[in-house]
Write a structure and sequence with these properties.
Elements: H1 7-22, H2 25-29, H3 37-50, H4 54-62, H5 70-75, H6 83-90, H7 93-105, H8 107-117, H9 121-132, E1 141-142, H10 143-153, H11 158-174, E2 183-184, H12 197-203, H13 219-232, E3 242-247, H14 252-257, E4 263-264, H15 265-268, E5 273-275, E6 284-292, E7 295-301, H16 303-308, H17 315-335
Helix pairs in contact: 3-4, 6-17, 7-9, 7-17, 8-13, 9-13, 9-17, 10-11, 11-12, 12-13
């Protein structure tokens, strides 16, 4: 029997079909369409801004292969799942055990990262665990194919991805990388921490002074780079991330109606909201619900949670990182 699409999936399918129609015929058969006006314009801009050679970039883009299947991944990411289904994908004992092994292998680097940037090992490990299982899966897509597809044939976020494509070409030139040879995620993220090219250029750290940062093969570079990223976005050392909230009465609904209303912990009491364990009364937070298996979970969200969301804007992602970090820490202390 033919499966009947729900209306939402029907709209998504129609959207994807529409995007695919944007791909020129030559782009689907013989590489990126170098006669496409937007591709030609991009090449010209790269030559004018950064002294690339037009013939060189034209040859490069003729070998790029746009992939219309990427649109499906962009429109239906894992982060769209309800929290109770998303959590088990990442917050699990296997990830925690692997994280502890990785921690012990690079203990000196984690200690240095915490001392220099104030970011605890558990948070860095949780990022690396969620992103690539500590470097075991760096992605299977050619980064230039992904970025070119999304830059030229994905209108909803084309300006952003054109910027990342620009940064990617600069990155590969600076680090003497083959732009056709780097593999990453479907969105063009690179290396053990899955940095987008702009973040790679801005926050990556060269730990052994080799002249470039290797986020694909050098775990020490990856560890220090994640710490530098979080510090750059304002990580506050020793401060809370998220605490489960206790709810009483109906006052909390007023807070949910006003998105991200920040109050001190002391002020939350007037709305029937209190933390599940002690935290300083003058700490500021906001109340955020998550879809639990048996109804909504309510959490008090602090500044450092928002810093994690600079890595990925999904609250589910940030909560998975937070809880995996806690599990890694507990596993590490248990085995100490």
């Amino acid at each position: 029997m033919q499966k009947v699409l729900g209306f939402g999936r029907f709209l998504q399918a129609m959207f994807i079909a529409g995007i695919c129609l944007l791909l020129p015929a030559c782009a689907t058969t013989s590489g990126c369409c170098t006669q496409d006006p937007q591709v030609k314009q991009f090449i010209q801009q790269m030559c004018a801004r950064h002294n690339f050679q037009q013939a060189e970039l034209t040859r490069l883009f003729a070998q790029v292969k746009p992939n219309n299947h990427l649109v499906d991944s962009m429109t239906a990411p894992h982060e769209a799942l309800p929290w109770y289904r998303y959590r088990p994908l990442f917050v699990k004992k296997e990830h925690a055990k692997n994280g502890v092994i990785f921690w012990r292998e690079h203990a000196g680097t984690f200690a240095k990262a915490q001392q220099q940037y104030g970011v605890p090992p558990e948070i860095i490990l949780a990022i690396l665990g969620v992103e690539t299982n500590y470097g075991h899966f760096l992605g299977k897509y050619r980064v230039i194919d992904c970025l070119s597809t999304l830059a030229f044939y994905y209108p909803p976020r084309a300006p952003y991805f054109r910027g990342e494509l620009e940064q990617y070409l600069l990155l590969t030139r600076e680090n003497s990388l083959d732009p056709l040879g780097v593999l990453g995620s479907y969105a063009g993220a690179i290396g053990q921490p899955q940095f987008m090219p702009s973040s790679y250029r801005k926050y990556s750290v060269d730990t052994n002074h080799k002249g470039y940062s290797d986020l694909m093969g050098n775990s020490n570079d990856a560890i220090m780079s994640v710490a530098n990223y979080f510090k750059g976005y304002g990580w506050l050392s020793g401060q809370p991330i998220a605490i489960r909230a206790r709810i009483s009465g109906e006052g909390y609904k007023k807070l949910l109606a006003r998105s991200k209303t920040k109050l001190t912990i002391a002020e939350f009491k007037a709305y029937g909201v209190s933390p599940s364990h002690w935290v300083a009364g003058q700490q500021q937070a906001y109340l955020l619900p998550f879809a639990g298996a048996n109804g909504p979970e309510y959490w008090l969200i602090f500044h450092n949670f928002d810093v994690i969301m600079r890595y990925n804007t999904s609250p589910n992602y940030a909560m998975a990182v937070t809880q995996l970090a806690e599990l890694i820490g507990a596993t590490y202390r248990h085995k100490a």
